[in-house]
Specification:
The protein has 304 residues and is mostly beta strands. It has one domain: 6 Propeller (Neuraminidase). The protein is 3% helix and 42% strand. It has 1 helix and 23 strands. The strands form 6 sheets. A 5-stranded antiparallel beta sheet has the order 1-2-23-22-21, with no helix packed on it. A 4-stranded antiparallel beta sheet has the order 3-4-7-8, with helices on one face. A 4-stranded antiparallel beta sheet has the order 9-10-11-12, with no helix packed on it. Strand 11 and strand 12 form a beta hairpin. The chain is globular. The chain starts with a helix and ends with a strand. 38% of the residues are buried.
Amino acid sequence: MLKSFHYIIFLIGLISLSQTKDYSIINIEINTEYPHFGLMYIGDSRVVFTSYLLDKKERVKRFEGNPILTIFEGGLSEEGRIININPVQIDPKQYVSHITSATMSPDGKHIYLATNYTRKNRPKGNFNDANFHIAVGEFVEGLGWTNFKVLPFCKPKYSYAHPALSKDGKTLYFTANIRGGKETTRGGSDIFKVDVSDDGIYGEPKNLGSKVNSYSREMFPFMSADNTLYFASNRPNGFGGFDIYKSIMNEDGTFEKAIKLPKPLNSKQDDFCLIIDTENKTGYFSSKRPEGEGDDDIYYFKQN
């Protein structure tokens, strides 16, 4: 990892603390002028998140002229810091240079990335270059994460992003703009799910329905240990921009009507990417609120 990044991590303390009766919010020390988002837990003691890859002079690295947006992995301290950060090792021959979010399987054998098509998997015929897909890869010692394959239900004419696994790894949640049929997208993007079998077979995408999705955009799902779905939406009657919502999943797999989280977890700016620990006491989210470092920042929160 870059020496300058280590300097930031180990020598700067936690900054920007705000409190209410219910929550304490901390802008953690890794934030810079560049965006930090795409949070997801790896087990109970690590997280993965997305940001730009920087060179030794803290300039954004580029691939084929475009900035490299990639994923980083870090440990969690008792105070909520993200420590010992390193880029997630990805086989360079896979040409994966733009990742918006990622999640790992509970057994640690597979990683799911939201990324764009590359020279290795570019679809035949006409398609929208801006469309993303979800790819799954495996870890090979000495190479890192490699052998990525586009998930079979991803169709090039639609865009798929923000993968999130249930705690048992048997359900994959994601965002998509699938059109047509019973499972059509209501707004700009909806949250869907697919079943994942033990032998790696994927079911068909199922829209989570009107209790979760709206005629606006839903993004960045996260399923907690107690089967509560957290996600972001820019639907009307929010605090402003994207807000964080939650919806409880019933025993039959249906969802209750989503409710908006209170301030300070939400603000007048974009708030998204919330993840919460197994005890529902602490967690992280991203926000572009004014007291941040200039772009999407990661905030640590704890219940008072």
